[in-house]
Amino acid sequence: MTNPINGRPPEAVYIHIPFCTNKCFYCDFNSYVLKDQPVMDYLRALDREMELTVKHTPPGVIKTIFVGGGTPTVLKPDEMAYFLKSVRTHFPQWDENIEFSMEANPGTTDKDKLAVMKEGGVNRVSFGVQAFQNELLSGIGRIHNVDDVYRSLENARSVGLHNLSVDLMFGLPNQTVDMLRESIGKALELNLPHYSIYSLKVEENTLFHTLFNKNKLPLPSEEDELEMYLLLMSTMEAAGYGQYEISNFAKPGMESRHNITYWRNEDYYGLGAGAHGYVKRQRHMNIKGVNPYIEASHSGLPRLDTFQITEQEAMEDFMMVGLRMREGVSDQAFRAQFGKSLLDIFAGSLKKMLAAGLIEQDGDTYRLSKQGILFGNDVFGEFVGVLTEV
Ligand code: SF4
User: Fold this and answer.
1) Secondary structure of the chain: what % helix, strand, coil (to 5)?
2) Which end of the chain, N or C, is less surrounded by CB atoms within 10 Å?
3) What keywords appear on the UniProt entry (predicted)?
């Protein structure tokens, strides 16, 4: 994607649909309960943002599009068709192997809608499944049950969508190691090309945060949570899925190319309420609320903030996001973005992390060791604020 060296336009697009049927108890994403929301007005505002964006930074050939949320699949089939047509109009040139992903919730994906999605170019669907126990699902505020999961996947396959992914969560209230083992087993029986498995984070401004503060959130112990992470990594590996990022597992060649854009610190357009984008070392954040976003889109780009990233910040970001990937960071890629060697900048931190056994080296590439995966945040922190030492 674009970097100051090759000057190519962004080849990745993120679009945010901020509506959900209800609000899950742990969720701090920019999402709003759908009822009474001005959905068509929002989609028209998005259309305007796309139009202005490509006028400002014309796109090249687009390699990945990711529609996230929120729950993009709460759009009705006619709204979905309008939205996908907008995308195609403003980003008309697609790579022949484009990865066009959309997030979906089981229970919001009937066949008609999935057919409209496929017709509009979507070729990868990521389902928020989270767990295979109905009592856990209702305990975290999800609207779907386990039967919905099977039905949604069957619907997707029946319209010809086969590049499917499932999200699972661990560290949930009342979840045991055995429950996670069962969820992973059931997820693997689906024989999908890709799985994402995240740990629950108790975020501020969520119901879970309130319960946590009142000591009323029965989270698994730290030991159980560690056991869960070790279990999921070994089970996925044994089933033939590569852990290509801390929380992501794929059959060879089925890694999410869109997410790899972020982890390689490459450029992407970010469109929609609250969306972030990164183009030519400039980051932006859009206005978050639905109505304020719509309002702002009438008079220009609906930005909350835009700021230039210094070279130092870009280098630190490169390390922090790059080390999330199992392939790690290479001197070659660093030189391509910054025209300098990794060792010129980060020799001290690399040496320290190698000595601690948290990073391993393979030629000009550095990656988290097995032990380092468990202490990712500590490792990433080592690469922040080091330029003053150089
Ligand atoms: S479906 Fe996803 S975005 Fe919507 S409330 Fe639940 S976790 Fe948040």
Assistant:
1) 40, 20, 35
2) C
3) 4Fe-4S, Chaperone, Cytoplasm, Heme, Iron, Iron-sulfur, Metal-binding, Oxidoreductase, S-adenosyl-L-methionine
